[in-house]
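Hey, does this match?
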Amino acid sequence: MRLLRPGDFSRVYDTRQSASVGSLVLYAAVNRADPSALRVGLSVSRRIGSAVVRNRWKRRLREAFRAVRPDLPVGNDFVIVVRSGEAPSGAAGVREVESAIASLAARVVGRRGYAEAIPRPRADGPAKPKRRR
């Protein structure tokens, strides 16, 4: 399953549980609404490159997440953010992304106090989705 609504992304970001390696950052939050679900959201900014590059990153991330999904703990929502760089190519690149996602998820979920973490509102109030014109 995927995270699609801005409110879901905000909840995961506001929980402030993250880890990073290389050009990937993984945010995680416990999914209290559906403890049997495992959902992922992808965030690839325009700063990363053209639409071709961003879509290549998203394809690689979805493929890697599908591969490591059975090893991840259920009842969590994950958001994967790409900081910079070209999308990894080839089978070795996909394996690299798979291992990065698995290790980041294990690092965040294994932290002491992770299960009790609750979303903390931002100082300037809740994030509001931007209107497109």
